[in-house]
Specification:
The protein is of the alpha+beta class. The chain folds into two domains: 3-41; 55-199, Glucose Permease (Domain IIA), CATH 2.70.70. Helix content is 18%, strand content 37%. It is built from three helices and 14 strands. The chain has helices spanning 6-21, 25-41, 115-118, and strands at 55-57, 62-69, 75-81, 88-90, 95-103, 121-128, 131-139, 146-148, 155-156, 161-165, 169-175, 179-181, 188-189, 195-199. The strands form three sheets. Strands 9-5-6-7-11-3-2-13 form an eight-stranded antiparallel sheet, with no helix packed on it. A three-stranded antiparallel sheet has the order 1-14-12, with no helix packed on it. The protein starts with 5 loop residues before the first helix and ends with a strand.
Length: 202
């Protein structure tokens, strides 16, 4: 379980215990169920990371809800994370974190294409070898907290945990020309283990 979940989980467990002690079993059960959901939401399973350096992996769990070409020629792959997905975000490739930039914004539903532009988000750029990949942690209608554990200059390995987004969100990853796309709209992906592209000249 991600450590960010404990401030939500522990008070719910304490309340459930106090209510049970007071004989308010119905309310105690409600808070216990909420605690179980929080534990489930903040789960942090281990993943098998592909060792091939030419492979780019998904930075998030979820469903691919959009693929499009940006004005700069990169291919944007949009991944929607429901409240039932793992919300830990991972590095799509190994390399150096070039930049981490926070952009304030709105909180539209994460499956809405406008969320990519208008919503609050954290944009990271990682350079690994010949590839330079940008991806965005985007808040959704329920997600009001983006967490990033990395800063410019940090070195990351492919599939390494880099942060999370609380309670429903979206991650956009921008693949340059040298990355051949290997997913399609509607595919379900797992962060760190699902391959979304291959670097041509890695």
């Amino acid at each position: 379980m991600a450590r960010e979940g404990y401030p939500f989980l522990l008070p719910l467990l304490v309340l459930a215990a106090l209510l049970l002690y007071a004989g308010m079993n119905g309310l105690a059960l409600l808070f216990l169920l909420l605690a179980l959901f929080v534990g489930y939401f903040f789960r942090d399973p281990e993943r098998v990371i592909p060792s091939d350096e030419s492979l780019v992996v998904s930075p998030a769990d979820g469903k691919i809800v959009g693929i499009g070409v940006e004005p700069d020629g990169t291919t944007r792959v949009s991944i929607f994370l429901s409240v039932f997905n793992v919300h830990i975000n991972r590095a799509p490739l190994g390399g150096e974190v070039e930049s981490v930039r926070y952009h304030p914004g709105r909180f539209k539903a994460a499956f809405n294409p406008a969320a990519s532009v208008e919503n609050e988000q954290n944009v990271l750029v990682i350079r690994g070898g010949s590839a330079r990949i940008k991806f965005s942690q985007i808040a959704g209608i329920l997600a009001r907290r983006i967490v990033c554990w990395k800063k410019p200059g940090d070195l990351v390995v492919k599939g390494e945990r880099i942060g999370l987004i609380r309670f429903g969100s979206r991650v956009d990853v921008f693949l340059p020309d040298e990355v051949v796309l290997s997913v399609k709209q509607g595919d379900k992906v797992e962060g760190g283990s699902s391959v979304i592209g291959r670097i041509k000249h890695a």
